[in-house]
Design brief:
mainly alpha, 43% helix, 0% strand
């Protein structure tokens, strides 16, 4: 496949599929090169198969939420999810 260099003044919408694929591939490669390797521990096996015996995320959340005392839940404002920035950052 022949590709042309991407002109930053050119709209992405004007690229051909081949040019777009090459641009995305190059961008991913550049990102991977600049990303610190320490984000993913060396012992992490990213190719390992999904563990069907692992509990779903929502079950873990429900289990942990059930351990929070009612007195703590009572201190959370009713509009906390809608006003999260206001409560976290006083903005």
């Amino acid at each position: 496949m022949t590709t042309t260099p991407f002109d930053p003044n050119r709209s992405v919408a004007s690229l051909t599929m081949a040019e777009l694929e090459a641009f995305v591939r190059k961008t991913i490669q550049q990102t991977e090169k600049s990303r610190p390797k320490s984000l993913i521990p060396a012992e992490t096996d990213l190719e390992s198969p999904f563990d069907p015996s692992a509990p779903p995320f929502w079950e873990i959340v429900v289990e942990r939420a059930a351990k929070i005392p009612d007195e703590v839940w009572a201190t959370i404002p009713e509009d906390a999810s809608e006003q999260v920035d206001r409560y976290l950052y006083q903005s």
